[in-house]
């Protein structure tokens, strides 16, 4: 254990110099003015991230990861620690805008999140990177690869299609409505607040999604105020943009770099019949199926790590 501890160095950074709201915003609160809401190309944000390094010489471009909706950089902790033992790369796990410890903004689009990644690579002096994203993060990285192909050495997309998503806007709106309308007294202990929040969310969606969303619930140690780490009101406002994603992506040329899709056989987020269309968008791509649902990297971590390691260590 001591040797393992010495071989892995985890450095945590909380960025946010361009915008500096508290990482916790009150339930239902908006952080910035409405001016930015209609902007198609907002200023990129400095994002919070964790950096993982191992004993291997870092001879290849770093790997930059993006989580999914309601997620955070913590989702990639175990995977990142395993990867730096197997690949000659740094691994950056990033909190996307409006999630985790990153700044909140009134704009939440794949284009905006793509610009955040561009700024991140520029600030850390990386001419390019391998990019990996799950779900919402996968869509952002697909956009980034097609917008800035010179910055993407290779691309890993985890259980998401560029064609369509299975959840209806109506169902997602119900989830966000439940989050935004939640009103918890600061006098409640965290355990009781969690119970009430969970029961409210269960009226909008199923257990698995609720448990994932509940990772966002926070309670300020000083004021006792409950909050969501993710910016629920703004995410709700941009739900319709999720449906327009394919049209937005088609405005960009195909990404011809090495690409792999890793998807769950029990997940509805990637449909096999869409693969011919996807290959037109990503002509140098392959797809792998693991026996899992949408959270492929949680349900089949060893198989997932094996696939990602093999792909990252290729010399093509």
From TrEMBL:
Keyword Hydrolase: yes
Enzyme class: hydrolase
Enzyme Commission code: 3.1.1.116
Catalytic activity line of the entry: a 1,2-diacyl-sn-glycerol + H2O = a 2-acylglycerol + a fatty acid + H(+); 1,2-didecanoylglycerol + H2O = decanoylglycerol + decanoate + H(+); 1-octadecanoyl-2-(9Z-octadecenoyl)-sn-glycerol + H2O = 2-(9Z-octadecenoyl)-glycerol + octadecanoate + H(+); 1-octadecanoyl-2-(4Z,7Z,10Z,13Z,16Z,19Z-docosahexaenoyl)-sn-glycerol + H2O = 2-(4Z,7Z,10Z,13Z,16Z,19Z-docosahexaenoyl)-glycerol + octadecanoate + H(+)
Top-level taxon: Eukaryota
Alphabetized InterPro entries for the sequence: AB_hydrolase_1 (IPR000073), AB_hydrolase_fold (IPR029058)
Keyword tags: Hydrolase
MF annotations from Gene Ontology: carboxylic ester hydrolase activity
CC terms in the record's Gene Ontology section: mitochondrion
Entry keyword annotation includes Membrane: no
Occurrences of domain AB hydrolase-1 (ranges): 61-301
Family recorded in the similarity comment: Belongs to the AB hydrolase superfamily.
PANTHER family given in the database record: PROTEIN ABHD11
Identification of the protein by name: sn-1-specific diacylglycerol lipase ABHD11
Primary gene name: LOC108004568
